[in-house]
Structures are given as C-alpha cells and as structure tokens.
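Hi F.,

I've been meaning to write this up properly since the lab meeting, where we talked about keeping a consistent format for the predictions we share between groups. The idea is simple: the sequence comes first, exactly as it goes in, then the structure tokens exactly as they come out, then a line or two of notes. No screenshots and no reformatting. I'm using this chain as the first example so we have something concrete to point to.
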Amino acid sequence: MLPRRAPAWAAAIVGLALTAFVAAAVGWKPSAAEALPARLSDAEFWSLIEEFSEPNGSFRSDNLLSNEVWMQTVIPDLTQVARRGRIYMGVGPEQNFTYIAALEPKMAFIVDVRRGNLDLHLMYKALFELSADRAEFVSRLFSRPRPDGLSNASSADDIFAAVGALEGSPALFDANLRAILDRYATHGQPLAPEDRAGLEYVYRAFFEFGPSIQYSSTSRYTSRGLFGGRGQPTYADLMTATDADSTPRSFLATEDRFAFVKTLESHNLLVPVVGNFAGPRALRAIGAYLKRRSAVVSAFYLSNVEQYLRQDGLWSSFCGNAAALPFDDSSVFIRSVRGGRTGARFGFGLNSQLGRMATDIGACAP
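Output, unedited:
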C-alpha cells in the first residue's frame, strides 16, 4: 500500500526543512576527524556491509549486467565536472567499474535493494583479486581457458574475440568457484550459506551464457516477452563499446583501468551494501561514515532508480537520504534516461545524463 499523501502545509514545512538541510550540506566544512582508510581490514569490510545494509528487497530481474550500451558517452563531461580521488557511489552491476576507473575514487559504495547484487559484487571482488590481468579476469569470469597470444597491450575487442571463440569448461567452472569461495575462507570470512548459493547462481549464469550474456538472460520474464533479450547488448558489447568520439573507456579497455579497480577491490575499498535508496539506514549510514572522515561524494550513479521511487511513493524519503550525503558544487548524479542516441542494433536508447547534486537535491521537494 502506498503511503497517504501529506497535506499541503506539511509538505511545505518538509520542503523548507529539506532546503535548509541541503544548504547546510553544500556549505558543509570538513572538521578534524578520522581520515579515509588507505585500506580496510577484512573484518572492517564485513562490518561495514553488516552495519549499513538493510533487509533484502526485490526487483523484476536479476540485473547481472547493464543494458546501457551508451553509458560511456557521459564520461568526458563527468571527468571535467566531478573531482577525482573522492567517493564514488552507485547501484547495480559492472557499469560501476567503468565509472570508477574514470574517476579513480579513494573509496566506493554500491547500494542495491537486492542481496543478489551484493553476491554479484562478492564474485567480482574475488575474481579481481585472483586475476593478474584483464585476459585472466575475462577467462575466469566465463570459465574459459586463457587464449594464447594476449598481452597487456591487447584491446578489449581482442580479448573478447579470443575468449568468445572458446567453449566454457565445467572443470574450470568448478575450480574457479572453489577458488572464489576459498578466497573468503582464507580471509577468515567464509560466506553464509545463502550468499554461497547466491554467488554460485550468479557465477553459473556467466559460465552458461558466456560473453553473450545479456541483461535478461536469466529473467523469468523473457519467455513471456515482457522484456526479452532482443536488441540488448551482450557483456562483450558493453566492454568493447566507446564514447561518442570512439574512445574505449570501459574498465576492461586498458590494463591501467583494470588495475585501478583491482587495487580498490584488493584493499577492500569497494563496499557493496544492501539497501533501498529510500530506506531508513543504508544511505544515511554511509553519509554519516563519510562526514566523520571529511569525505565528499564525487559522483552518485543512480541508473533509473528514481522512476521506481516515484512510482512507489518513496520520492521524499530518497530526497532526504540524498541530502544527508556530503557533497559540494562539483558533485554529480549520473542517471540513465530513455531517448536520445540509438543505434541500428541497440534501439532501446538508454543514455547517461549528469545532474549537479546540489541543484537537484535543492529542487527535490517531497
């Protein structure tokens, strides 16, 4: 049931309070406090996940990968506006790695309503740590043998063409899955049974569908045609895509981009959190943690979550949560919107768009 609409006078009071809160946030000055960590211990990493996370929620799909093939087009503007070396926040799967590689934050938080997204990122974390380079990472991700002839100079096109030409190996899948799970046991943090099962489900999907996996590959809706895979980009398409000037910017485009994300993951500084953007804990807990450490959010990737918050009557709660984050005039939201650039193959036209956090939150009346 949707919440009852507040009377106009109440909304006005809440709006004024939120505006004042935003003004205070934009003018927020760091005080003497703890510094951001250069790395988190394993115990600290898991403690943040448990402390910040909310109960598991649901979404209409597994969302194992993005369907936003044009997401790189915003990166040139993003890197001109948002400051590097700050905090990155996002939602969803692998597209976050590409934005992280562009902005090189000191720390990142991925907040998603589904615990399945946390399991997906736990899989990625282990694969980054286990893989020496991009070719090994892609081979492990899809349980394919590493092709001969690939080097640090190989393009993403070269890597995916070579890996895509090979069949998946059940033996490699079993060995890699054991290595992933052993990685957490070695760190003294064996996964709970539900997370082991969730991680195995995710990893098996990448093995079964290979580099041709799409947003809807595992969706129960595909057979009923509600949103099938036709016209959606594959994983290979997303990793070999470019910006509007044909410059490749995915996190697998170059060895340096991959290495940055690998280091962040290896230092436990990419923290996946289960949480609703309008929920009572996740965003506010992250905001309090960052403010104690004099940190500022550089960019917050929202995908198209805002449309669901509006539909569910949760918009004002999200506005308040967003206003509780530390941001300044250079901080930006990254949104996915429909329309604009399309292509003969990918006709659904999901595009990225930037918005200033200070401006958007200031106008975010309940």
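Notes:
The radius of gyration is 20 Å.
Confidence is low (pLDDT under 50) at residues 1-28, 221-228, 340-349.

If this format works for you, I'll send the rest the same way.

G.
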